[in-house]
Amino acid sequence: xxxxxxxxxxISSFFILFGCKKNETSEVAKTDAAKNSIEYASGLSIVKYxxxxxVTVSNPWPNANxxxxxxxxxxxxxxxxxxxxxxxIQVPLESVVVTSTTNIPFLEMLEVENKLVGFPHTxxxxxxxxxxLIDKGSVKNxxxxxxxxxxxLIELSPDLIVTFGVDNNNPMLDNLKKSGLNILIQGDWMEQxxxxxxxxxxxxxxxxxxxxxxxxxxxxxxxxxxxxxxLAAEKAVNSTVLYGSMYEDVWYVAxxxxxxxxxxxxxxxxxxxxxxxxxxxxxxxxEKVLDKAKTANIWIASGSxxxxxxxxxxxxxxxxxxxxxxKNVYSFEGKLGATGGTVxxxxxxxxxxxxxxxxxxxxxxxxxxxxxxxxxxxxN
Length: 380
Description:
Layout: H1 4-33, E1 44-48, E2 52-57, E3 68-73, E4 87-90, E5 96-98, H2 104-109, E6 116-119, H3 128-136, E7 140-141, E8 143-144, E9 147-148, H4 150-156, E10 160-163, H5 171-178, E11 183-185, H6 194-198, H7 201-207, H8 211-233, E12 240-243, E13 246-247, E14 250-254, H9 259-266, E15 270-271, E16 281-284, H10 286-293, E17 298-301, H11 308-314, H12 322-325, E18 329-331, H13 343-347, H14 352-363, E19 377-378
Parallel strand pairs: 3-4, 5-6, 5-10, 6-7, 10-11, 12-15, 12-17, 17-18
Antiparallel strand pairs: 1-2, 2-3, 8-9, 13-14, 14-16, 18-19
Helix pairs in contact: 7-8, 8-14
C-alpha cells in the first residue's frame, strides 16, 4: 500500500497534465486550422475565428523592428489567454479617425464613411462624399499627421485611430497610447504590389463587420485588374517610358520593383529604369536622365502640371526630351478636389485596376477605345 499511494498520485497527475495538454493542443489545432485571408498584401495578415479576428501588421515602415498584432473582438467574445497581451479592439467600430487619404475610399466603398469623426488636415480629402460630411461638421480637423491634436482626439473619443509611422521613432504614437486612445498602425503605403495595396480594404471590412462585402469588392478589383493586364499582354511592347521630374536639383525615378514600375510592366511598356533594383525611388542628375531617356517616346511626369508650358517653366531643359517635343507627356497628379487634395493620391491605391487602365490607354490606346482616363491627363 505504501508503494501504491505514490503510484496513484503519479497516475492522477498524469491524467490532469494530459487533460491540460489535450486542451492546449485543441487550442493550438484551432489556431493552426484558421487561415490568413490575405493573398496579395505582404504587410497584413487577418485570421478570423468564431467571434474574434487576429490582425498582424508587419513592416509598417522601412526597417521596422517589430510587428504589431491586434485582436478584433465582438462583444462578449472569449479570447484565449495566449492573445491577452495584444491590443484588443471591440468591433464593429462605431467611430473612427483615420490619418491618410488612402483610407477614405475604403470607408466609402464599404459605406461606413459616416463613422469617420476626425481627420488631420481635412483639405487633403478630395472625395465629394466625404467632403460633404466635413462641410456639415461631422468630420473634425484634428491637426496634422505628425502633430495630431490629442486634446481634441480625447474629446472626440473615437473607438479607434488608424494611423501610420515613418520610422522606429514615433513620439506621436507613444503620446496617443499614453492618452488612453486606441490606435492601430497601418502599413498599406509600404506595399509595392498594386493589388497588395488595394487588399487593405479587408482590414476595414474586419473593423466594421463587413468582411464579406470587403472580399466581394476586392475580388471584383482583382478580376478587373487581371482582365486589363491580360489584354495588354497581347500587344507588343512599343513604348519606351521616362518617369518623374526634377525636385530641386534631383530627378527621382521609380525603381524597378516599385509600385509605379509594376504598373508599367503590367501595361506592357518598356520602362527605362525597370532593371534598377529596389523599391521607392532613386535620385539622379538631370544629365544622367537626359542621357538615358532623351529619345523615350512617352513621359509620365510627376507633379500636378496642367500644361507643357507650365512644365517647361519649371525647368526649361525639359524641352530637350523627344517626348516633350512630340507632346507625349502625361500627368497622373493634375486632378484635384475642391480644396486642393490630389485625387490620384487618395483613390489610386484602392483602385489599381483603374490606374492600370489609364496606363494601357496611354501605351496602347486602341485596346480601350471607349475608356476615359480616371487619373491621367495629357499635357497640351
